[in-house]
Amino acid sequence: MERVRVVLQAADPVSQAGLASLLQAGAEVTLLRAGDRAGARAFVFSCDRLTTEAIAALRQSAAETGLPVVLVISEMSEAELLTAVECRVVSILHRSAVTAERLVRSVVAAANGGGIMPPNLVGELLKHIERLQREVLAPNGLNASGLTTREIDVLRLMADGLDTNEIAGQLCYSERTVKNVIHGLTQRLKLRNRSHAVAYALRAGMI
To answer: What is the pTM of this model?
Structure first.
């Protein structure tokens, strides 16, 4: 199995050395030298709290590399969770609970598109998503996919192979309305045609 190349940045030399030792003990990962991010698939970042400086460093990494982040932290409030997620944090480990096995498992999960978080933070994240759906998206006729109910209905019928006239009949819309819906979503999502729109929606789990 190919080893996961990982970048490490800690707020202090002691933490840097300790986490480096834990990562190097894992057969599944390769720790890159400081400043070398070539081929990296994950970023381990360690700090005591999500200070302004820590957030700035995470935002810079997200902008420059887009690497998923494993955050090792001493203390973190539930209110700081969304900020962490915005900075590409996909796994959170409390410093006192870090072991070589947990750290390596989190890095591998992050590199493969997954993530590991404490149960209380997962629950808080789900609450935030529910609140976003209720207070922001739903009042504007949207859902978490960014599509309106009308767009989703049209996409589902397109995926079933119906043409414009048949979709209009099923949804009691005019053909012009159906064409406008399709044009709007393909332009907004920068999709080439109807087939591309259906394929995109299926891959993204929108329909």
So the answer is: 0.65
